[in-house]
Amino acid sequence: MPKLVITGADGARREIELTTRDLRIGRSPENDLSLPDPTKGVSRMHAELRYENGRYVIIDLNSQNGTWLDGTRVQRADVASGSEIAIGPYRLSLVGAGSPESKTTEDVNVVGPRTMKLDAPARPAPPSAPARSGPPPKRPPVRPAAATPAPGPIAALARLPKPLLFGGFFAIALIIIVLGQLFAPAEPAPTTTTTAPTTPGGPPSGPEPNAQIIERNLGEAKALIDKKDYETAIRDHLDRILLIDPNHAEAANLKVQAEEALRAAQAAAASAASTVPTTPPPASGGGAATTVPPSGGSTASTTVPPPSGSSAPITPADGRGTSSGTTARGTTGRAAAPPETLPSPRRANETAQQWRSRNADLTAQYNAARSALERRNFTTAISGFEAIVKAEPGYLDAPQLLTRAREELRAGGKEAFDAGTKAEAAGNWTAAIESYERAQKIDPSLGAEEAARRASEKMHAAGADAFKRGRQFDAVGRVADALKEYSNAAQWLPDDDANKAVARQRADQLKAGQR
After folding, report:
1. With contact defined as beta carbons under 8 Å apart, do 93 and 5 qualify?
2. Cβ(254)–Cβ(221) under 8 Å?
3. Residues 419, 423, 424, 428: what is their CA dihedral angle, to the nearest 10 degrees?
């Protein structure tokens, strides 16, 4: 039965029976074999003794002072029977190494619990002992007293039949090749981009790239602007382009031009609706006077005399007449000034000053709400347009803009939520959480807050798994894989997790070692 003889700095010896199970060695009580060391010559997780392919292997777990086998510092090495392993002030000797029997925990009475803790040495080590930087002095191998000296490995091989000897060498070479293929870093396969031919008139074979979407919407927007359908061009095409690429200069310029043209067209339409034309008088002299209805809801009317001129008075819009019987054309022959027009008609019993003041307030509210809509601040835009429609239901295009703001709010929130779902499915936790938080701000009714919490929990769990894989790769010397996993752990673990700082520090050390 193979045994591991542990000798402390004070000369105290312990023996434990070995099985096929891995044996973790270090200063921490969490190890399978705990080696207390006040001088900290033994790291918390120092080394691991494994049984692989009929032999024992010692693996250093990136300890500070290293693991020494027969006076040579090793990272991973086979341990033969009688070899001595130096870990800090302790000396571990493998005795009787052969093919150990597979035992369960209940069958091993010598070892007891899985974790074995050795008492600290009774005498403190001399002050100069922990400061040794070179390899520890080689001690004579400890061999069992009753064991018969075994022949050397060369002599044992020489006694084997030649076919068996060469067959063994071939099997070992084959195993090494297979293990090398299994543990070699996977190289990314070259990617080739192919464009599948499409049948004319048939559906596309795959999703349309963003560049094609932008180009198609840009052409349709220009066609609509040429037809003076500015609102459809902005809502259905230009806004979609800016949602895909917010920095698209041509789309942004077209949107500004379309909005200016739309406002000018709406102002012209409102002015035409507020101005009531008079019926032109007949060409021949004489005729009845033409009465023009008042604007703004006033009860007074303006009477325009026939071309031949008469003394029929013109009644002003504010209801105040004149005592001199003023005609439509003065003595100088100039036309009368056109009536004042504002977006909101004048109400009954409303003075001119009150009318102007009310229209000024509505204009300020309209401009603020429209500016918020252009900045895609849909919540503020909706609030502003709702106040305008409540005060003046038909004010310019406020009802249409209110409907548009509500539709874009729902569409923007749904799009952000869908982007978060895709990022979460792809394991891109940071992007998923950002998309969910943006969807929550746009439309709280989507339930994005719960989705963000779920993605955060998955990210923390993935960070813990990445940290474990990083330690495993680090232990076997796979630096590139360990660096990748440590970086992911540093990004995904929560700030209050102590392993986050450990992962970041180890990743920095590995990066520095690659330079």
Report:
1. yes
2. yes
3. -150
* Residue 5, pLDDT score: 92
Neighbours of 443 (CB within 10 A): 19
Burial (CB count within 10 angstroms: exposed 0-12, middle 13-18, buried 19+), residue 231: middle
CA 508, distance to chain mean position in Å, is 22
Residues 493 and 458 sit within 8 Å (Cβ to Cβ): no
- Burial class of residue 506 (count of CB atoms within 10 Å of its CB; 0-12, 13-18, 19+): buried
Structure tokens at 123: 């005498």
C-alpha–C-alpha distance, residues 84 and 313, integer Å: 127
60-118, pLDDT tens digit by residue?
A: 999 999 999 999 999 999 999 889 999 999 999 998 875 444 333 333 333 333 445 55
C-alpha R_g of the chain: 45
DSSP 446: G
Enumerate residues 6+ apart whose C-beta is below 8 A from 167: none
Run of H or E residues at 354: helix 352-374
Token output for 166: 């060469």
In a 3-state reduction of DSSP, which class is residue 96? coil
> Which 3-state string (H, E, C) describes 386-445?
HHHHHHCCCCCCHHHHHHHHHHHHHHHHHHHHHHHHHHHHCCCHHHHHHHHHHHHHHCHH
Q: What is the DSSP letter of 34?
A: E
The alpha helices in 202-351, defined as continuous H runs, are 210-226, 230-233, 239-244, 249-274
How buried is residue 143: exposed, middle or buried, by Cβ count under 10 Å (0-12/13-18/19+)?
middle
Length of the chain: 515
Measured in degrees and rounded to the nearest 5, phi and psi for residue 426 equal -85, 0
Instruction: Give the pLDDT confidence of 107-142 residue by residue, as tens digits.
Output: 333 333 344 555 544 444 444 444 444 455 555 454
Question: Closest Cα partner for 369 from 343, 350, 395?
Answer: 395
3-state DSSP call for residue 262? Answer: helix
pLDDT tens sequence across 214-261: 989 989 999 999 888 888 888 888 888 888 888 788 888 888 888 888
**Which positions ≥6 away from 78 have C-beta within 8 Å?**
55, 56, 57
Q: How far is CA 24 from CA 30, 51, 56, in A?
A: 9, 12, 13
**Could you tell me which residues come within 8 angstroms of residue 73 by beta carbon, excluding any fewer than 6 positions away?**
66, 67, 135
Structure tokens at 126: 């001399």
pTM of the model: 0.30
